[in-house]
Amino acid sequence: xxxxxxxxxxxxxxxxxxxxxxxxxxxxxxxxxxxxxxxxxxxxxxxxxxxxxxxxxxxxxxxxxxxxxxxxxxxxxxxxxxxxxxxxxxxxxxxxxxxxxxxxxxxxxxxxxxxxxxxxxxxxxxxxxxxxxxxxxxxxxxxxxxxxx
Amino acid sequence: xxxxxxxxxxxxxxxxxxxxxxxxxxxxxxxxxxxxxxxxxxxxxxxxxxxxxxxxxxxxxxxxxxxxxxxxxxxxxxxxxxxxxxxxxxxxxx
Lengths: 149, 94
Fold this sequence. Notes:
The complex is a heterodimer. A four-stranded antiparallel sheet of chain A has the order 1-2-3-4. The longest helix of chain A has 27 residues, at 122-148. Chain A has helices at 5-26, 32-35, 77-85, 122-148, and strands at 40-42, 45-67, 87-110, 113-118. Chain A starts with a helix and ends with a helix. Chain A is α+β, with helices and mostly antiparallel strands. Chain B has two helices and five strands. In chain B, strands 1, 2, 3, 4 and 5 form a five-stranded antiparallel sheet that branches. In chain B, strand 4 (39-53) and strand 5 (56-61) form a beta hairpin. The longest helix of chain B has 29 residues, at 65-93. Chain B starts with a helix and ends with a helix. Chains A and B meet through helix 1, helix 2, strand 2, strand 3 and strand 4 of A and strand 1, strand 3, strand 4 and helix 2 of B. Strand 2 of chain A pairs antiparallel with strand 4 (39-53) of chain B.
């Protein structure tokens, strides 16, 4: 299968356009609509939740192109020159991304006024606590070992 | 500098106002965006709400207590490590 330089360049341009479109979708997370929920009305009260949103992504695309050289020992001169004239190319790509959202506060609008109630994420605190204290214990253990020497 | 401004952007946005009775609430958020040729990162967080009652405006900040508690834990850990290192040096000097 022969691949021309034009085909490879067109494919690379299409991939770049696809990456640009996908990245623009990523930056939709920067809008306030992603942080604040639509208001929920119940009787005289209106509730809005506020969250912290993080999103990230990356893509990589590579294309290569070069001339083929014939190394077949039994090929004739005509066959060898025809094979060396055919260009060859290749390409590849990959990408990844992730996002997270965490509730921060709840805004309650009622007859008494507006109340902002912060949300304490116990699970996240527990994980952070275990991680930091585990790292601290390892460091203190190393310090204690040095003291014994 | 302009190029850095194109790559890193810190923007404050105001959301859609919500009206309940005579109270209008306008949410505010702050977004940090990092735009690279083949990647990007967005960090969007709520910062405050602006309350308007009878033409009086008041800005109430939104406090992220979970983040404060996390930073306090990390700060406590760093403080304890530094304290133990300082104690270690004093002992070695003796």
